[in-house]
Amino acid sequence: MNKEARLKATINQKLTETGERERLKELLRAKLTECGWKDQMKAQCKEVIKEKGLEHVTVEDLVVEITPKGRALVPDSVKKELLQRIRAFLTQHAS
Amino acid sequence: HFWTDSSPAGCSHVNGYKVDNWRQNLRVIYQCFVWSGTAETRRRKAKSCICHMCGAHLNRLHSCLYCVFFGCFTKKHIHEHAKNKRHNLAIDLLYGGIYCFVCQDYIYDKDMEQIAKEEQRKVFGLLSDCSVSVHSTGIGEKYTTWEPTKRELELFRHNPKRRKITTNCTIGLRGLINLGNTCFMNCIVQALTHTPLLRDFFLSDRHKCEMQSNSCLVCEMSQLFQEFYSGHRSPHIPFRLLHLVWTHARHLAGYEQQDAHEFLIAALDVLHRHYDNGKKTNNPNHCNCIIDQIFTGGLQSDVTCQVCHGVSTTIDPFWDISLDLPGSPTPFWPLSPGGDGSTVNGENHLSGSTTLTDCLRRFTRPEHLGSNAKIKCGGCHSYQESTKQLTMKKLPIVACFHLKRFEHSAKLRRKITTYVSFPLELDMTPFMASSKESRVNGQYQQSVDVLNNDNKYSLFAVVNHQGTLESGHYTSFIRQHKDQWFKCDDAIITKASIKDVLDSEGYLLFYHKQFLEYE
């Protein structure tokens, strides 16, 4: 594993160990629901299901179709806030 | 027809897994690798949950259900393992879903779903005491999607009519018959039935009445919401509400025109009292009724001794903010145009016209109490001159501003008709106790913190008074959906433009917080 990948893994370990990862996930969930992103994604999923047909659609179909849209539609303010939180966490746990 | 009362779509390929002690094994997998609740399981998860083929921890990691193997889903490492070992089931470590490689899709086996739900619920309880206050709806459980019970499915089948809320449907709008100068009551009812949180509370049937008699105002309010959202277009006749108001707020009884603001306060007071059927009288400061949750804010009063500069602080609850207007007997200091604050709120600054922000600035300015009103200072142990300043300590979810247009002084009774412009969106940050503190410490920054949305409000109702003190009429503007406004004149409801609303005189202004924090 190269240096960057090792750094990512270390950060991930620290986040998971301390439970911060779960807290951040819950925070993100709340923010994305508040700003209506979750409802947007639900509507997109319904479109895909209509297109492919309820009997034939798989979870994979949905993942492939809405992942790019989902990533693009996350509001900047939410990204900013999460980044701030992660930075604050890393500063706290710097070793 | 998404829901049927048969079990969710499972598959027969799980039968090979459901042998021996499979339930306990599955629980262990959930506890250790999906929803790790304890410090020990978290540490283990951090160390071991990486792909056995490429070492990555992202890429939708899955765990094989038959052996100890973790593999990426995205890079198909888990798929390879499934094929090679003929282990046809895997679990998604992010969401806990079970994937069947034969069906090539996630499957929902009833027994396995049950275990997943239980394990998830356990962990969410443990998350509760962490520093981030992100909980659920406050009932103490994690938010889960609603699934109908058998009884509910029955009701759905027996009542096939469905109401669809589109962007321009008018459900929730209904006129109110004037029962004899009762427009003061009608306009407040319109404002309350269009308060989103209050509407949601009553339409979710959250009031469980314990009052013996028929005189519970909260029940009547609940009925009112049923009437407004029934879809009936004929005006509603609120005779029962009027009768209850006369019973519980004697000072408002009679057929004369009353003050809408007084009615608002009386109504909130009675609703607050009836909420728990008087049980709360044991602890009036810690009431958690819906009225307090929505309307109660905290007003901080700081009295500063001019000699020793000691500050005495008290915080009082409030349901509304009454603002003096220019033209009233107490001197009003119009602030120079372009002063800080009014451009932040984007108000209609016609030359010389007063804005709501001006009124709020005046309300929160330090006021010298004068030599006739000396306060006993705890620091100086004697009576000293002091200044007093009011700021907002805690903002309510719904802020109601009362423009004091009716003057009842010893000399005369008159109505102040000065135009006060008010904004569609309001930021209360400059009037907070915390802003005042940082100003005092020299840290006050003009630029508003972009990420702090806590103090931002949106206008959703305006009550107006036309005419004179002796003979006048109340009407209201209310907001429906996001951008549609309607004028409510007793039984007559008409569409209004935002301009109509913002150009109106304004007597009671109702603002709703834009962002709600979880408790």
From TrEMBL, chain A:
<dbReference type="GO" id="GO:0000124">
    <property type="term" value="C:SAGA complex"/>
</dbReference>
<keyword id="KW-0509">mRNA transport</keyword>
<comment type="subunit">
    <text>Component of the nuclear pore complex (NPC)-associated TREX-2 complex (transcription and export complex 2). Component of the SAGA transcription coactivator-HAT complex. Within the SAGA complex, participates in a subcomplex of SAGA called the DUB module (deubiquitination module).</text>
</comment>
<comment type="similarity">
    <text>Belongs to the ENY2 family.</text>
</comment>
<dbReference type="InterPro" id="IPR018783">
    <property type="entry name" value="TF_ENY2"/>
</dbReference>
<comment type="function">
    <text>Involved in mRNA export coupled transcription activation by association with both the TREX-2 and the SAGA complexes. The transcription regulatory histone acetylation (HAT) complex SAGA is a multiprotein complex that activates transcription by remodeling chromatin and mediating histone acetylation and deubiquitination. Within the SAGA complex, participates in a subcomplex that specifically deubiquitinates histones. The SAGA complex is recruited to specific gene promoters by activators, where it is required for transcription.</text>
</comment>
<keyword id="KW-0653">Protein transport</keyword>
<dbReference type="GO" id="GO:0005654">
    <property type="term" value="C:nucleoplasm"/>
</dbReference>
<keyword id="KW-0805">Transcription regulation</keyword>
<dbReference type="GO" id="GO:0003713">
    <property type="term" value="F:transcription coactivator activity"/>
</dbReference>
<keyword id="KW-0010">Activator</keyword>
<dbReference type="Pfam" id="PF10163">
    <property type="entry name" value="EnY2"/>
</dbReference>
<comment type="function">
    <text>Involved in mRNA export coupled transcription activation by association with both the TREX-2 and the SAGA complexes. The transcription regulatory histone acetylation (HAT) complex SAGA is a multiprotein complex that activates transcription by remodeling chromatin and mediating histone acetylation and deubiquitination. Within the SAGA complex, participates to a subcomplex that specifically deubiquitinates histones. The SAGA complex is recruited to specific gene promoters by activators, where it is required for transcription.</text>
</comment>
<protein>
    <recommendedName>
        <fullName>Transcription and mRNA export factor ENY2</fullName>
    </recommendedName>
</protein>
<dbReference type="GO" id="GO:0006325">
    <property type="term" value="P:chromatin organization"/>
</dbReference>
<keyword id="KW-0804">Transcription</keyword>
<dbReference type="GO" id="GO:0015031">
    <property type="term" value="P:protein transport"/>
</dbReference>
<dbReference type="GO" id="GO:0070390">
    <property type="term" value="C:transcription export complex 2"/>
</dbReference>
<dbReference type="GO" id="GO:0006368">
    <property type="term" value="P:transcription elongation by RNA polymerase II"/>
</dbReference>
<dbReference type="GO" id="GO:0071819">
    <property type="term" value="C:DUBm complex"/>
</dbReference>
<keyword id="KW-0156">Chromatin regulator</keyword>
<dbReference type="GO" id="GO:0006406">
    <property type="term" value="P:mRNA export from nucleus"/>
</dbReference>
TrEMBL record, chain B:
<keyword id="KW-0479">Metal-binding</keyword>
<feature type="domain" description="UBP-type">
    <location>
        <begin position="9"/>
        <end position="126"/>
    </location>
</feature>
<keyword id="KW-0805">Transcription regulation</keyword>
<keyword id="KW-0863">Zinc-finger</keyword>
<comment type="similarity">
    <text>Belongs to the peptidase C19 family. UBP8 subfamily.</text>
</comment>
<dbReference type="GO" id="GO:0008270">
    <property type="term" value="F:zinc ion binding"/>
</dbReference>
<dbReference type="Pfam" id="PF02148">
    <property type="entry name" value="zf-UBP"/>
</dbReference>
<dbReference type="GO" id="GO:0006508">
    <property type="term" value="P:proteolysis"/>
</dbReference>
<dbReference type="GO" id="GO:0016579">
    <property type="term" value="P:protein deubiquitination"/>
</dbReference>
<dbReference type="InterPro" id="IPR028889">
    <property type="entry name" value="USP"/>
</dbReference>
<dbReference type="InterPro" id="IPR018200">
    <property type="entry name" value="USP_CS"/>
</dbReference>
<feature type="domain" description="USP">
    <location>
        <begin position="174"/>
        <end position="514"/>
    </location>
</feature>
<dbReference type="InterPro" id="IPR001394">
    <property type="entry name" value="Peptidase_C19_UCH"/>
</dbReference>
<keyword id="KW-0788">Thiol protease</keyword>
<dbReference type="InterPro" id="IPR001607">
    <property type="entry name" value="Znf_UBP"/>
</dbReference>
<dbReference type="InterPro" id="IPR038765">
    <property type="entry name" value="Papain-like_cys_pep_sf"/>
</dbReference>
<dbReference type="Pfam" id="PF00443">
    <property type="entry name" value="UCH"/>
</dbReference>
<keyword id="KW-0862">Zinc</keyword>
<protein>
    <recommendedName>
        <fullName>Ubiquitin carboxyl-terminal hydrolase</fullName>
        <ecNumber>3.4.19.12</ecNumber>
    </recommendedName>
</protein>
<dbReference type="InterPro" id="IPR013083">
    <property type="entry name" value="Znf_RING/FYVE/PHD"/>
</dbReference>
<keyword id="KW-0378">Hydrolase</keyword>
<keyword id="KW-0804">Transcription</keyword>
